[in-house]
Amino acid sequence: MPIVTPEYSTDTHLFERLQDCGAIVIDQEEAETQDIRPAKIGLLNLMPAQVMEATELRWLRFISHTVLQIEPVLLKFDDDKRELPNSSRRNVLKRYHPFSAATEDGLDGLIVTGDNQERQQDGTPLPMNELHYAEDLKEVIDWANSNISASIYSCLASHYALNYQYGLCRDIKNRKFFGVYDHHVMKESEITFAMDDLIRAPHSRWGTIATEHLEAAGLDVLAVSEEAGWLIAEDVSLSGNTNTYLQGHPEYWRYDLHDEYVRDRQYVPENYYPGDNPELQPILSWSGDARSLLSNWIQGIYKSYSS
């Protein structure tokens, strides 16, 4: 929340100096008249049924680390195909709001989660435009670009959004990007403001879009790992709204990579277990970065509707 410059302060330049260093500042008169409502944050949860509820908690826990009140809005597509009879997600989605109904009241921000990789009968990844909710997701992206100040697209959703908007194609690797990696901050932005030069975050994916392809398309690439590729990229829509693309999973909890390892037994996640020994408790080394990242994102939303 903003710093209120006291009316009795003899430092006449405090307001300007705080603004220059990136702090949010208001004067005493504005503070006394301010009536800030909760930020309405939509969460479009694409994850499989067994982890949908955990995914809600992952994201909402980290965006709650701010004094600003958050009103989460759990979203599903209109006429969501995932609610068909016998669908695994059907019961969970009963408590989600149809996208068109939720957007009638407006949203301040939107998070679109990742999803498991859909595959064709021969085992190869399904092309992005053949995802069973591809057309629905296009409508969400188009609406968000014109109606809200900030969106986050995570993992598979980031690849889909980049493919749809820029024609960028992901490359499916023979080995999974799986572990916790250091990412060098390449460019300062509102979302990386005051973060350390190295950001740690988990990755769990087969696909990747090359950093140079994002840069050639005009996106700002904010943080990059030598081993795992980019973590954060950003653009601004024609309406002036900011889109943040996350190729990794800063929202993960301590045991999420462990659970994936136990399920698949294919690769040991890198830089995660002490001595790369899966018998030992995983090291939680990224939660502070995740809190800072998502707090910065919420702060940007606050600035957009409090001014």
Beta-strand percentage range: 15-25%
Largest sheet: 10 strands, mixed
**SSE order, one letter for each helix or strand:** EHEHEHEHEHEHEHEEHEEEHH
* Beta strands, count: 12
The shape is globular
Poorly predicted runs are none
Descriptive overview:
With 307 residues, this protein is α/β, with parallel strands linked by helices. The chain is built from ten helices and twelve strands. It has helices at 14-20, 28-33, 49-63, 90-93, 99-104, 134-147, 156-166, 211-216, 256-264, 287-306; strands at 3-5, 25-27, 39-44, 70-76, 97-98, 109-112, 150-154, 171-185, 198-208, 220-225, 229-236, 242-246. A hairpin with a 3-residue loop joins strand 10 and strand 11 (229-236). The relative contact order is 0.14.
Characterize this entry briefly.
With 307 residues, the protein is an alpha/beta fold. The chain has 10 helices and 12 strands.
Task: Give keywords.
307 residues; alpha/beta; ten-stranded mixed β-sheet; two-stranded parallel sheet; 24% strand; globular
